[in-house]
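Page 37, top half.
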Amino acid sequence: MKHVLLSLGFMLILIQPNLAQKTQKPTQWQTATSGGYSYRYIPNDPLKARFYTLKNGLSVILSVNKKEPRIFSFMPTRAGSNTDPRTNTGLAHYLEHMLFKGTDKYGSLDWAKEKPLLDQIDALYERYNKTTDTVQRKAIYREIDQKSGEAAKFAIANEYDKMIANMGAQNSNAFTSYEVTCYLEDIPSNALDRYLTLQAERFRQPVLRIFHTELEAVYEEKNRSLDNDPWKVEEVLMAALFPTHNYGQQTTIGTVEHLKNPSLVEIRNYFNKYYVPNNMAIIMAGDLNPDEVIKKIDQKFSYWKPKEVQLYKPVAEAPLTSIQVREVFGPTPDNVRIGFRLPGVLDVKAATLATLADEIMSNSAAGLIDLNLNKQQKILGGGSTLEKLKDYSVWSLSGRPKKGQSLEEVKDLLIGQVEKLKKGEFDEKMLRAIVNNYKLNAIRELENNYSRANPLLDAFVNSKGDSWPDYTRRLDDMSKITKKEVVDFANQWFKNNYVVVYKRKGEDKSIQKVEKPAITPVATNTDKQSPFLKSVNDTEMAPVKPVWLDYKKDVKRGKAGISEVLYASNVENDIFRLGYRLKIGNYHSKLLGLATQYLAFLSTDQLSAEQVSTEFYNLACSYAIQPGNEYTTIRLTGLQENFVPAVKLLESLLRTCKPDEKALEDLKGRILKQRADAKLNKGAIMQGLMQYAEYGAKNPFNNQLTNDELAKVTATELVGFIHSLVTLPHQIIYYGPQPLASFEQQIVGLHQLPAAFATLPSKQDFKQLPQDANQVLFADYDMVQSEISWVRNTNTYDPAQAPVVEFFNNYFGGGMASVVFQTLRESKALAYSTYAYYNTPPKKGEQYTLIGYIGSQADKLPEAVAGMNELLNSLPDSPIALESAKKGMKKAYETERVLQDGVIYSFLDAEEKGLDYDERQKIYDALDALSYTDLKKFSEQYLANKPYTYCVVASEKRVNPTDLAKYGTVKKLTLEEIFGY
């Protein structure tokens, strides 16, 4: 499935001919009382969600999931970029960043002394906003910088992150979009009291401290967006689709002009206006007792007073009556995007019809674009997606051209598939298949807390939860839709009323970079703590006993012919996951990647390639082949009731696929275009540089067929290679409801094995290089920012080092509370994104590698490099951060559960390292004894004042390679050297 926002409706029978006639009665709200609190619920709701509204209007939505002792939480406010003042765009996003900075109770050493300085900074920003003279503005900003430095002496940076890490939380984050700003955490279930105490204080009286360094982080985020061509396409598309609505007229990050002129007064007014209980919610899914949780939330948040809230109420957009054409230029490959404006998500019937139309067009398997364009290789790649928003939804098509193909030709091919939809040129069986696949995905969504909470978040944002009855009925509603209704909908909405954006390779002369202001690094006082932090950290957490894997007991082993079977039972639902883990990878054969791509375009002895895809989709099953360096896994997943036909179909494809010369020639042409496009991708370039640094000129990244070698490969050769895969040594992995004994018996009949496995091809080994002297690997790329990665190979894998390695990573560079993030982003404002970690090799005999990264404005590169080097050479000592990291790790391990077939893959990972035990237990048991002395010794032995290879991707217009010579010998690599073709 390609969509995240799916219905969790009725899941009774997945495959049946008369699905549309076997429907449930409409589901409506019911009311119940428990533990002294009333709530609404929907009978037969798979999430069993309870919807509470407290006296002050705060919405609380709870869903119980007892699979692991953790809770995922969203805290949304129904205010995003739509509600930004037109004179202060980006304001909601600013505020999101600042709500990690604390209140008058935490984040401050002395609030009485800090507040007057912050008031002065407020006034200075207001003067700055009203001043147009450049010289005067710089003078005022120098005052802001000076006063900010004074105020920072009384601030404690990121106490929020320390508290959240100390309780064992994971993935602490927030996001802002059109209609919501949302704060999210994944916490241990025994940390609920700490979490609620912290959140209640967080939203009581936030203080906008350390503002100008955080503002610099937002500048960096804006500059990153200027280097992001898809982001630019999105902005241009939305602006054309919505000439009056804020969807198109205001971006989340804001305009450059508004970024340069922030107003703390306006930000505070925004908070007071929209961050009120009747406009917010607490949404939790996980191991919780609803009666206890709602009582605690009520107690913690009862201080919050409601206010009348006026949300954004736009004037209706005039209909689009013609095709709007736009162009975007940038360094990435050409592509086209087409957008249609549709009714919003609250129009339930329209939303359902739009979903079906979108899936008929592209479902990653058997849609019109999938079969008629992608499968037939008429374009490099294409698809469709539906963005469901409150006021309007946006349906978009996208495509990439083959070599020699114009964007206009790709656009015409995509619109041609829309015309087929409008004419009803699709099999009506597709409607039932779509519903079945959505039902399968709905079952999967029940398996983890995040996927449970996500649709509840959307329901709150769109309607404060009132749309949940429609949401839970959606699959039932989908099953009733007829082909005629879909065709009528397509003809009503998909006319010559779309926006087409041509993304062309070329210089973007419209870029207006956000200039770096003069900022003096501020004190972060990371070794200090507020009384509030201490009280939160001292709040008792009920003990949770960690659960470790015992591979001898937890991984069931069996036999199917000459193959070993690794088995895990699914006692939750009827989903199966089957894997053939082949002992062949890219190190054994350069044909592997090509062969696995080729397979998607091949017919069997009975079915065409298009029919194969359609059959898999009709079975609500899917397969994937994942080549690795030393192993390749062929995976098949779906419902157990369709296990036999799905395996038979996969086996037929692997064993009877037929050579197709035209498909191969088309594929070769597409690969050559993909290779050319990869050279325009800065992420791929950086990946290649880092592999070059780690292994040298011949490395796993460029270990692939040259263009000449590719040209010589024949269809017969490739098909022979595919047929041979199942004859090579492999294990069979099964997770599902079928008992081991019956699975062993069944799979032998379905998956025919030879009397003896064939001999594996010889394997090419890649040796990691020692970094004996500093070196700079440079690649020129047209971008506003610069990106730098540090690479250093160290010692050979030693399992005894696992505790100190994991402790070092958590303390040094692994999150927002880490030394790297706190210093380079929070104190010095050098980057939006930065991290560092000591990478453990995947198998014994290989070496650890230190990887560091910072993305900064090009003119800050010298400061960025110096900042990271200082941390690598002299590990800072922060006892409070150290203790927080240690306690957080322990609590995370205590509540972490390896579930489902994760047990099998954990065992296989351990086996590659030569271990027969769960390494997490060794780390956990050793943590209490570890100290800063251990980390310092580790750092000095392997990292401090050692040679590194610096990988730099930047524009020569902004970073001169000769200026990089002070870091080491500079080697400017060509794209051919990086990519190997």
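Page 37, bottom half:
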Amino acid sequence: MEERLRFAVLGSVRAWRGTDEIDIGPPQQRTVLAVLLLAEGSQVLTSELVDAVWGTRAPASAPGILRTYIHWLRKALEPASDTAPSVIRSTGSGYQLLVPSVELDLSAFRELLAQAEQARLSADALGAAKYLRDALGLWRGTALAGLRGEYAQTQRQRLSELRLSAQVSCIRAELGLGAHAKAAADLTGLVAEHPLDERFRELMMLALYRSGRQAAALETYREVQILLADELGVDPGPALQEMYQRVLRADARLLAPQGPAESSTPAAVVPAQLPAGLEAFVGREAELSEVTRLLPRTTVLVKAIAGMAGVGKTAFAVHWARQVADQFPDGQLYLNLRGFDPGGPPVTSEHALRTLLESLGADPRGLPQEADALAARFRTLLAGRRMLLLLDNARDAAQVRPLLPGGACLVIVTSRNSLAGLVAVNGAHPIALGVLSVPEARALLERRLGTERVAAEPDAVEEIIARCARLPLALAVTSARAATMSELSLEAIAAELRSSAGGLDSFYDGDTSADVRAVFSWSYHALSADGAHLFRLLALHPGPDIAVPAAASLIGCTLAHARRLLSELVQAHMVRQPSPGRYACHDLLRTYATELLNTVDPPEETHAARHRMFDHYLHTAFRVTALTSRARALISLAPVADGVSVDGFEEDAAKATAWFTAEQAVLISAVGSAAAHRYDVHTWQLAWAISSQLHVRGLWRELEAVRLTAMDAGHRLSDQAAQADAHHGLAIATAGLGRHDEARVHAELAVGLFAASGHADTLSESYCTLAWVAQQQGDPAAALHAAQQALTIHRAHEGHDADDHRSSLARAVTLNTVGWCHALLGQNQRALVHCRQALILHQRLGDKALTAHTWDSIGHAQHRLGQNDQATVSFSHALALYREHGGLPRFIAGTLKRLGDTHLSAGRPEAARAAWSEGLDVMERLDHADAEADALRNRLDRLWELDEVFS
């Protein structure tokens, strides 16, 4: 009897006939087999196979090469007998692998998961745990290991998520059986491997708590809270926050293992970004019925919800999104597009795409620059996922269109505009929200004030509803104030509204003649004097939301007092708290605050408040740069104004980075706001202060924009140093955008201006930037000359710098740059002399990343000299330091490329293959399709070709 074929994809792609393994050929041929296996018996079109193997770079000969791969696979897989049926069948337009004749580890894995779920539902915890352990035992490493390309990467991610979900279920089952210590031990490795996966953190907290380690469980939460803020700029999700609260209050129910009906924690890693719904949401039954009725009609559905300001578009969208969120198990994303934000411009589609991609776990440093490429990356990540995306406060259809994903996703868009283009071109279903009906407005008041109080004074209620024009925002503000004045009758409240009549001209959209200023002013005049003052000053803030230290700086008070004032404004519904510690003001209320500011506050007080606010952002951002860019030359700032709050971050670079992540949008807007109000010194210095972080995050367009704004400020000030700094930053930004000739011009202008102004430290820094740009232009001689000029300046000022540690780091960086440039010119002995001098300095000063860069340079020069064993050691030192430092994947990939070159030169092809494969895996996990990744692919392809020639 013919032995059955067995296949594996949960690791390297492999095949066996009985116990004998079959050679299935080089990577591209294995990719063809993998596609057929993952189709699980379905036909695969020839075009699909070509795309999977070659992607967008398929040669004209691809169909012919594909037929050759199929031919060799058949010869390898099929028995010797010519009469046996073919395992791979041609179908005319493609190919099909006959599933009944084979065994696949992925099919067995899924079957075991199904058996585990059935056991769980039958309350067989032991059986569920056994099936899950058996399922996970089928894995032999990373799925599809060794296969390259976008198809393989996409399938790897999909299969990896299946494995992670099974691991979550298995650990949950172990916890249900009381194996708390074992679960904690298993989770230690999983948390280290997947630090941003909140499921493992939540289970770790539970395992530690059940093991009697409450403090360790709480510390687990604090660690991920800092990490999420640092990496993604978000707070932990609702499930993790709930676990933290339950552990904090020592919830006894956590000690009891959960049965199948009680275990409700979701198994999938999903973003859950929807804002909290309004407890007092009422009405809108017809609109809710309409949107819900249409939901199943199409896989990609856009709901365009339009209406006037204050009509409750966001509240409606959030309420409905929360109602249907369980139909989108892959998560919910939320983004405020700030289309009508009076404090700043709308969010660009490019910036929105970056934010969404980072929310999905993408490394910001690995994202492309062009909007089209970002949109393609976003669609790729959401392909096959069922997600809900809420885009709030859109400006127009053009802003939204690049953000529309494919697949089974629901997109909800709110806007004051009708978004007719989105309806006509993209098939969006429009929903127009008007003011509430009288019964709905009455229901809102009843929800907030109580049924008895509303029923007792029907005439007053009718007048309040009329004075508020049935507008949800106005009714919310009025009822909030009324709730705090329970001693007043509703008739007295209606009289207050009547007597404070005025006009909020900017509110009118032609839909109402209501006097909304009367509503706002009534609540405003009930605020404390300081509360009213802060409310007015919030009109000066440029960002979408504000944190407590910035608010304290605006008004010039202590942090504690600012928190009390913000709490007062929240209670009065004059501001809202969209996330812990951050406060935002509705557009209409911000407009009202602006009107008040212009009529109440003297210009000199407004000027002083702006100055304090810009001082807060400038000095705090300066501190971020000082902590995170230790080799950068620092500028001199004027003393901070009285009443300004500045965070020192306790010398913690991670805290500093987390602050920048949270404030990034505000800081970019602050540069524009400072320029618009002619705070020109703040403008160029704030641009300097935020540039390092924009550079690290690859936000080249944002960096270019703030540097251009700084350039204008420098010209208005006639300040050569400011202009030089702007040119320096523009050189980095334009080089990052690939405009190298333009970058060279900016770098040379920066050098000239810094030389004229006599700033030695910044002059040497600009020479290093010029060297970097010249390298990218392919001009190593000019690069070396610029680097040597920088080194000459350092040596001339050695021992005279106020900050010797920082200047020593900068000198070490320059030495390494000189060494690298010598190596580019083939002057490798000279390269080693300079790089080893840099290494001694870096090791003494203790910067791991800079030391790793220098080891990499030394290895590069040693390899070129034929010192392959020494080069291997140097590259190994670099890799160890990069990995210890963390967050430097591109540098790791570059070093692995050079390590592989060294291994090949030393006659170690398998070691070269391993290094290049690991480097390509790093780049593909970053989702890179750039020259560095292509260089690694080309090296591996040439190695496979050599294997085939000599095999």
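Margin note: The domain at 887-951 is CATH 1.20.58 (Methane Monooxygenase Hydroxylase; Chain G, domain 1).
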